Amino acid sequence: MTKILAFAGSNSPVSINHELILNVVGRITEHEIEVLKLRELEIPMYSNAREKIGIPENIKLLYEKILDHQALIISVNEHNRNVSAFFKNILDWLSRIDRKFMEGKKILLMSTSPGQRGGAASLEYCKLQFPRFGGEIVESFSLPQFYENFDAAKGTLSNEVFEMGVVEVVTSFSQLIKE
């Protein structure tokens, strides 16, 4: 059984990327999954001056959790065609502990947004950055027009085509991360 850490890169209390995370992890039964809400972590904005004070305890905690898991499921939000400043800040801090903080981690990378591109720009950013941190993206998925394609009341995808796509991606990811 593989240990998976799952989280959304959003600090929104009503994160649609967190809702997507919950939908996806609910489909995986053969692995052990821990879901984090990064927004609950108090993390200061990175700067050289702040780093001299020391690495924040919540970043150390997150780093240890990443080390303790073999795989990651991450859903990134998008602000102005990029990852959010919140998530970029977390990546910056983690890379100050260890540049290869994702070393050996297989990753299911996802994104969603209310728009037609489904957070595609933030997804592409992460596809370039995560390998630099040692991560291996083995599957990815983007869900466009979240509110038209996701039934928030039920926590399910309402679009049949996207539902089939998620099933395929999750099945593949589950197979690829088996120890």
TrEMBL record:
Residues 2-139 form the NADPH-dependent FMN reductase-like domain. Keywords: Oxidoreductase. Its EC number is 1.-.-.-. InterPro entries: Flavoprotein-like_sf, FMN_Rdtase-like_dom, NAD(P)H-dep_reductase. One of its GO terms (molecular function) is oxidoreductase activity. The keyword Oxidoreductase applies. This is NADPH-dependent FMN reductase.
